[in-house]
Amino acid sequence: MSLFGKEISNNFTKRLGFESSLVDNFLSRCKNMFTSYIFFFQASHFFWGLWALIQAKYSTIDFDFLGYAIVRFNQYFKMKLEVMTLTLPE
User: 29 lies in which domain range?
Assistant: First the structure.
């Protein structure tokens, strides 16, 4: 959090009667939750890409499953490097 954001946060919590440590704890938990979410979000791209490949082979529905698979796998590989550098929260 930037210094300016920290100052606003501290001022806001003082006016409401909260301790600053509670806000810091909340923000830390939000970061951890977001990091965990990103890992599952990445897995979703891979799963739906794989599902679309299977559908492209076996489905009788008139839909561009192969095109959909390409979009999902492109997104997976686009984000892969970024996601691999994140660390899971403890």
Answer: 3-84
Using alpha carbons, list the distances in angstroms from residue 53 to 21, 39, 40, 70, 71. Answer: 49, 22, 20, 9, 11
Contacts with 50 (C-beta within 8 Å, 6 or more apart), sequence order:
69
Instruction: Tally the domains of the chain.
Output: 1
Burial of 79 (0-12, 13-18, 19+ CB in 10 A): middle
Dihedral, 40, 46, 59, 65 alpha carbons, nearest 10: 110
Sequence-ordered alpha helix ranges (H) in 1-90: 3-16, 20-58, 65-84
**Could you report the per-residue pLDDT of 14-72, keeping only the tens digit for each?**
666 666 666 677 777 777 777 777 778 888 999 999 999 999 999 999 999 999 999 99
